Amino acid sequence: MPLVELTDVHKTFPAARGRTPVEAIRGVDLTVESGEIVGIVGYSGAGKSTLVRLINALETTTAGSVRVGGREVTGLKERELREVRLGIGMIFQQFNLFRSRTVWGNIAYPLEVAGVPTQERNARISDLLHFVGLADKAHSHVEELSGGQKQRVGIARALATNPQLLLADEATSALDPDTTQEVLGLLRRVNRELGITIVVITHEMDVVRSLAHRVVVMEAGRIVEEGPVVRVLSDPREPVTRRFVSTIVDGEPDPEALAALHARHAGRFVTLAFRDDVRQSDVFAVLLEHGVRFELVFGGIEEVQGATFGNLTLALDGDPAAVDAAVDAVRALVPTKELAR
Q1: I want to staple 9 with a disulfide (CB 3.0 to 4.6 A). Which of 64, 79, 122, 283 is the partner?
Q2: DSSP structure class, residue 4
Q3: Are strands 71-72 and 63-68 parallel, antiparallel or unpaired?
């Protein structure tokens, strides 16, 4: 049984004065298996944050079913919803820590609300502080912490009640690149060592590449593409997905870049789409066998979760007939596109 299951979910917000109702979620079907890390990406207004608020029942559906841990959350009374939410941890972009409390006090808060006895509560807080690497900051106030340290406190607080599910809403957007990688590393540990399922909401494809097992792409309230991260990054099928992927994986040069490359390099340009089952050396050997000189002018190769893929644009130079034959031979090995001037 999936840990999270959404079936034909709709969410429409009532119209503000003089405006039409807003359809934030439109017929979404989604499952999240126990132990997965799922990244949900989309531009502003895609509906991804609303989707998370439906999962933790901070919003109610207009239509459709939301099940968490096998339990239908739609229509539950507030007392029953509190029980469900104890099994869901939440971390936020702006940390949402209590400035009036110390690090210890912030982590203690959900345990106090849950009525955990003092001795058990103190042991749990101590364990979590060591887990997130902040044992020496237990009695510091929030204002004394860096952004990365604040997010570590947020993660510790989210883990306090031993949740099955962790929801991270733009959890690294306010952090610098180095700190982002530290926080993502901590989330990987949460998943690997504690077995906690994680749903990450982000507009940064690099976060998905670094963290997620599976990616869901949203646009205008719908899921338009989903699949294993390696598959989606190496073979994006929808225009919005290709725009996201282009931020971290080079495709082919755009017309302006292509014109600049032609001004600097002679020959015919081809873009080769490498995937994990074809070695670059095999392709380059074919070009050499045909007496064709080549130069890498654009692109790169990525490694994600043990798989390698990427797009390389080459400038080919040699006898025109030899270049024609070489391109035909290479096309039998990898997807190949010749770029016009």
Answers
A1: 64
A2: E
A3: antiparallel
